[in-house]
Amino acid sequence: MKTHFRKWTKLILCLAALLLAAGTILPAMAADEPKPGDNAASAAVAPAAPSAAPAPVPDPSGANTGGVADIYGMSAGAPTDNDIKTMGGKEPLAAKVADAVGKTKVSINIVWTLICGFLVMFMQAGFAMAETGFTRAKNAGHTMAMNFMVYALGMLGFWLCGFALQMGGAGPFATLGGGAAMNAEFTIKLFGKEFGLFGMKGFFLSGEAYDAAAFSMFLFQMVFMDTTATIPTGSMAERWTFKSFMVYAILVGAVIYPLYANWVWGGGWLAKLGTNFNLGHGHVDFAGSSVVHMTGGVLAFMGAKMLGPRQGKFNKDGTPNAMPGHHIPMAVVGCFILAFGWFGFNAGSTLAGTDLRIGVVAVNTMLASAGGAFAASIYMWLLYGKPDISMAANGLLAGLVAITAPCAFVTAPVAVLIGAIAGVLLCVAVFFVERTLKIDDPVGAISVHGVNGAWGVLSLGLFADGTYGDGWNGVPGTVKGLLYGDSSQFLAQCIGTLTNIVYVAAIGYVVFKLLDLTLGLRVDPEHEFEGLDQHEVAVVAYPDFNLRNFPR
């Protein structure tokens, strides 16, 4: 026992030393790299033009973040650069006031983004309660443990390299007034066009990422990633080994999620479908129907498929047996917490409290959730003679998932329609996944997040009404869907959806296969029967329960 403890202690100490060294050495190396205009750079490359702009400098204190430039274009009557230059000579006080207004605007945006990030972080509690309530009591501690640890492990992976891969080439972050040094995107050239694949700055949140705006962006993007990371913990619940889960949790934050997120939100190739190939505004996903939910849903599908069903889920003839969750009130409360956090998810994706579209985004979010819950409840009532509260609760989530991409671009009646369709899709998908595909998904994660994530981005390509999104992804004009005259936008949404399925399924298969071959994905059959609380996490959620009462 002591030898085992010493081995783990040495491993942890070595890992800590490596992280400390990397966090110290990498920023120093980055600082020593030749910059445009440096003497060292001039000796190695062509001399910089005398008028070349200085390289962007990080602003860790925030003292120089925000200013008069941030009010340019703020409204129709906002001063221009020439106005400010003229004013500076004649009315210096007015110029200083304009600078203070710009800084205040950025401050409001940063506070708004952080508060919304805090709301999204609290969604982890909702996921924990929903997934635990929808699963059996003998595994409640294990399910809670996965939902708890995925937050910490996913965050560490995102800090190590995930944020850099996703946002390392996306700077400057215009609404947050900084992050200009995060400007290195790895690209390849195809068909005469540049395809961005991943960012190259911001590892360990050091170097160019040691910046007030970049840190704010990290927090907001990290909690989005964590939503993706936790979705498979529901579909793979009650039979997943904790050790392989922990490795997965780090990898999803470090690599799996950030790459697709870069292609859509980090200035990568899907975002450039508009500027490169005149396909609308490129693949548009306002708050993550594809980036967050569909990614998590496809991972959930691959993981559940490779794990196989729980013991006793299917009879020899393939017919499924019901395995009811042990605490439906807990699950319903979890869904309400998720709905509350979703206001941060969607409205926060403006990254600007000064963007008055936030009211439309928030109301559309509410309406879609109501449409999803209502439609799922009525569908089950008509089909089986009684409403099903678990389906209604998941219908609420399905509506939220579907509206996440188009929430800023559609009208209120369309938001209700999108949510209602999502509620019906959820019910149909749950039965299809279970009865036709023979995949055991204890909480319906594949149907809620995967199927309705796809529906969300496609619905944007159909219903975007052209009242918002001018200049999105660098394309002039507002975002319009197929029904409002832009069929190319729908095509861009289809390309992004197909890309997600292919990429996430492929990398998910590789990751889960390697974990299965090395650590093992599935627990021992006897441990599964007795309950994972007993054998995987050492803490039994309900120690007074008699396990002999549970069916095998």
Could you give the topology of this structure?
Blueprint: H1 2-32, H2 39-44, H3 81-90, H4 92-133, H5 140-167, E1 185-190, E2 193-199, H6 212-235, H7 242-265, H8 273-277, H9 289-307, H10 328-347, H11 358-384, H12 389-403, H13 412-436, H14 445-463, H15 487-518, H16 525-530, H17 532-537
Antiparallel strand pairs: 1-2
Helix pairs in contact: 3-4, 4-5, 4-6, 4-10, 5-6, 5-7, 6-7, 6-9, 7-15, 9-14, 9-15, 10-11, 10-12, 11-12, 11-13, 12-13, 12-14, 13-14, 14-15
Detailed description of the structure:
The protein is an all-alpha fold. The protein is 61% helix and 2% strand. The protein has a two-stranded antiparallel sheet. It is globular and about 85 Å long. It starts with a helix and ends in a 15-residue tail after the last helix.
